[in-house]
Amino acid sequence: MKRSKRDKELTDTITHLIPHAEPITESLEAIHESDAFFARGNTGRFDGAADLIDAALKAPEV
Hints:
The protein is mainly α. It has helices at 3-13, 25-39, 49-58.
């Protein structure tokens, strides 16, 4: 079997390890949302990495 055909088969079965040739709908929506977020000049939810880590440590486990 040709390697490229085998690679395509693996791509179709191991979706989390090998990205798809085209982005999925959810990915495209997230890209558009983040582009709009930054275009509005919004700041992030956290001031820095320390704030992010602090919030993560305080968050309840799911």
